[in-house]
Amino acid sequence: MRSFTLALATALPFCSAQLHLEAKKAGLKYFGAATDSPGQRERAGLEASYAQYDAILRDNNEFGQTTPTNGQKWLFTEPEQGVFNFTEGDIVTSIAQENGLIQRCHALVWHSQLAPWVESTNWTADALRDVIVNHVTKVMEHYKGKCYAWDVVNEALNEDGTYRESVFYQTLGEEYLKLAFSTAAKVDPDVKLYYNDYNLESPGNKSEGAVRIVKLLKDSGIKIDGVGLQAHHVASRPPTLDQQIAVIQSYAALGVEVAYTELDVRVELPLNSTSLEWQKQAYKNAVGACVQSPACVGITIWDFYDPFSWVPAVFPGEGNALLWFEDFSKHPAYYGAIEALKNKTGGHTCKPKARRSRDAVRSNRLYE
Ligand SMILES: *[C@@H]1O[C@H](CO)[C@@H](O)[C@H](O)[C@H]1NC(C)=O
Ligand SMILES: *[C@@H]1O[C@H](CO)[C@@H](O)[C@H](O)[C@H]1NC(C)=O
Ligand SMILES: *[C@@H]1O[C@H](CO)[C@@H](O)[C@H](O)[C@H]1NC(C)=O
Ligand SMILES: *[C@@H]1O[C@H](CO)[C@@H](O)[C@H](O)[C@H]1NC(C)=O
Ligand SMILES: *[C@@H]1O[C@H](CO)[C@@H](O)[C@H](O)[C@H]1NC(C)=O
């Protein structure tokens, strides 16, 4: 695998362009990467790569934003009722603060990675209301002033657009969405409040469900500022550029902004040059849809380094969903993202500037 990815990398054009720098030029607020505190990453045996990993994460031309992949989730922040623990979330928040990265904060009310006590109690409606208000309040107060946006409610929808039967929905119906957002707006009026979900990247029943949620809140006079498209795509069947532009428009029409919040494109293993090309197109189209949509403020990839991705553990037989291979060479998809960003500004794409010797190609100096 190592020699395969290296051979591929040397066949690629070298681009001096970097993601956040080009994203800013294209009019976005940021291009970012989620990251995690060391104990939570799939890092076993990879300690030797930390220094190189950390340098890329902290390169402000590459990334201008980060999100804690795990540390602000309920499981970590309120593991027992009324007992709050911000250790994990604070690690990534410190990285953001020290390196001038915009932080998207994630996620307040979600059925998954939820503390077990929330699901194992038979709540009355009143008791669960108190639990939601207390959780949203304490967590948001702790991170006040340190977040650009909060994912207030995460993954409330089934694929057909109906509401997921979470403990929150079963006990309170759609009232829980109103309660979470209205509480969040009270605690921190300055932070952007998002509804975040996956498979919201093409028009269909689920995207219509997200539209319904935005309308529900707006019609009730409750603040919602954005729809987060997680965008966990599959290289062999990603949404098209046009589908993504159309769906972003359907959210923007309601007066909210949009962000790609967890972009990755998983590939069936073993990799081959065809599937890597599919992946490149998928990244190019996701990034391109954001760049071409005035409502889309930025793009976050869900970590950037393949070995730290959630994908292999959750989808056996798939992987390499991110932009850096294990040996820190870049995926072809990295250049797909750059091309989509440069497409907006009419800048150079990563094309050969002159024909030179094969050695020059190998040393990657042929291109700019
Ligand atoms: C808080 O979380 C950290 C990191 O997960 C853990 O090491 C620590 O023991 C926790 N603190 C308490 C008081 O449980
Ligand atoms: C919750 O209620 C159901 C039946 O209404 C019961 O079977 C279950 O044991 C209860 N769970 C708890 C944790 O009390
Ligand atoms: C959308 O939902 C309707 C029911 O509301 C169902 O009949 C239809 O098959 C769904 N479409 C897709 C593409 O899942
Ligand atoms: C490359 O991988 C894809 C799966 O990602 C597979 O469908 C395709 O047949 C493979 N092509 C070759 C030439 O092995
Ligand atoms: C590149 O820009 C052109 C013109 O704005 C547009 O038609 C095309 O879809 C863009 N391509 C991508 C991948 O964004």
UniProtKB/TrEMBL annotation:
Keywords: Carbohydrate metabolism, Glycosidase, Hydrolase, Polysaccharide degradation, Secreted, Signal, Xylan degradation. Pathway: Glycan degradation; xylan degradation. Residues 348-368 are annotated as: Disordered. It comes from the Eukaryota. GO terms for cellular component: extracellular region. Its main location: secreted. The keyword Transmembrane does not apply. Coiled coil: none annotated. The keyword Hydrolase applies. It catalyses: Endohydrolysis of (1->4)-beta-D-xylosidic linkages in xylans. GO terms for molecular function: endo-1,4-beta-xylanase activity. InterPro entries: GH, GH10, GH10_dom. PANTHER family: ENDO-1,4-BETA-XYLANASE, GLYCOSYL HYDROLASE. This is Beta-xylanase. Residues 357-368 have a biased composition (Basic and acidic residues). GO terms for biological process: xylan catabolic process. It is found in: Secreted. Its EC number is 3.2.1.8. It comes from Neoarthrinium moseri. Residues 40-340 form the GH10 domain. Belongs to the glycosyl hydrolase 10 (cellulase F) family. It holds the Pfam family Glyco_hydro_10. Residues 1-17 form the signal peptide.
